Each structure stands twice: as structure tokens, then as C-alpha cells.
Amino acid sequence: MGGLTLTIITAKATSLNYGESVGNVSVLKKLSLGDGSQKTFVSDKALKYDMRRKGRDEKGWRLLDQELKKHITNSLRNDEFDVDSFGKALIKDYEEFDLFGGLFTNLRTEDGRKIVKKDKKRKKDEIHLSYGDSVKRTCPVKVTYAFSISKFSGDMNFLNNIDAYNRYIKHVEDEKEQSIPTSEEHTSHYLYTVTVDLDRVSMWEKEDGTTEEVLDNKEKAKRVLDLLDIIKTLNRQIKGRWENLSPVFVVGGVFSIKHPFFIEGVEAVEDGDKLWLNVQRLKESFGYLPDGESPVVGILSGIFGNEEEIRESLGAVSVAEAFDKLKEQVREHYGVSEV
Q: Taking a C-beta distance cutoff of 8 angstroms, is the pair 162, 178 a contact?
């Protein structure tokens, strides 16, 4: 048994996740704290979206596409839909479904026949599922929200683009005056955690609780190593900007217990142009680790005011070295030397 967990402080980034607009104001997603202040956050859905995007663009991951109907047709067995065959095919062909899971309801074949749960009386043009009422996979990769280190102070930005308006927008909108949109703005480091159940990667779970291996350990390791590469250079594209979410601090490892050990252990505050990490709190969180197991800590130089303390007390190496060590632990878990 084994689980990979990483808790990360990102590089400084600006205005990463907007919610619903109020009038002409774009509102950042925020969480209120007990003292009445607010922090901005990036949802887990947004982070996973960018992980999948980079997986597609940089690692050749195949995302769920129009070929799903062919997989549905190929999973028909004597007018019954084989849930296990369909699930295993999706794990094999789609890294997205393998790592991030999914839920499929109201399935239809290529010729339009509806697939319904087995205990439902079947109509002439319907097909029964072999079991259950849907096809579902719980994701092996869990991602928390990314919360800002600094608090939101209500900064606003007036987004007047008079040049574009004068050149073409007024001719399209047929308006005499430009409506000036406004957006909330916040620049901060962000903190989030990723936890991966390594034993469930590329494994299909049946209704009776048993599992079946879909891919070998080499391919399992490759998919997790790809994910680590993606996290190492994670970025977000929003409102015409590239925002860097690469780690400036990371603590994690592969452990015999599957748990986000450092989710409460990493605490940092921003003072002036430096971050200050609560080293004592993080060291105490190491006490939750299984006996004989220790974490990997990585830090980017020049970001933290107490960098020397972090390096000496936590044995921190560079971020690049930390990810190399994490990748080696993943290889050891799966028993492969090269991928």
C-alpha cells in the first residue's frame, strides 16, 4: 500500500479564479475567515482543469472525447451493457478518467438506444447495465482548493480598452459609449495539497469491491510521474494572462499510509517582500508520519525570510531536487527503474 502527498506553496500569481459577475464587476472567489477578513481561492475544479490541459498539451494525454460512443458500442454483450468492460477501456485509453475519475449517466449507444439500470423494466429500444445505475470512478488524485497566503484587500481594476472600442467594438455593439468593466484583483502566493492513492491508479473497481489491474506497473508509474512534472510547472491561463503556479516550497513523499499529512502543517505569512514559514508547526506535523518514514522538502531560494532555518531544520533541498526524489520514490513503489 502507498500514497503520494504533496503540500505546495506556489509562486505569486494574480487573480486566478473568478465566480459570477455582479453587473459589470468580475468577482473573485473568496472565503471569509473568523476575523471577518477574506482570502481568495482557486477551486479544485480549476486546478484539475489546468493539470488536464497541461497533460494533453505536454504529455500527450487523451482527454474524454467523441470516441466514447464507440467504447459504449464495443461494451455491448448480448443486448446488455458490460460496465466492467467499459470502465477498463476508459482507464486504458484516457489518462483523464484513470487519474481524475468520472461519472456517466444517461448513456446511449451510437444508434441512439438508451442504457438503463438493470432493475428497471426495459423498453424495446433500451439496454440494461450489467450492474448499478451508472458508470462511475472515484478519482485516485485528490486536489484541495488553493488558498491565498495573503488576505484580500478589496483592490479593483477598471478594464477600459478604449483603443479596441474605437477600432471595432462600437461598430459591433452599436453603442455610443463604452461600458467600463471592473474586476477584483489580488496577487498572492497560494497553498494547496495533492494526494494520490497509488494503489488505485490504473485499477478498475467492480461492484463487489474487487479490483482488476488494467495497466502494468510501468504505465502506472509513467502516469504518476507525468502528473509530478505537470505540478512542477503548473500554470493557469486566465483573462489573457499566463500565471505561474510552480512551487516555491513543497513538502511531501510516498508513504505507507494514505493521508494528506501536511495539509495543516504548512503555515506561512507574508511580511514585506518575503514569506515566513512556521517551521515548528511543520516539524510537529511530521509526528503523524509512519515510523521510520520521512518527508522530502524543497525550497526556491530568495523567497523566504527564514530560508536558512528552513534548510537547516527541515533538510530542504532545491525544488528541482525535491521533485527528483519524489519521482524516485514513485518508481520504487511500483518497482520500476526506468519509465
A: yes
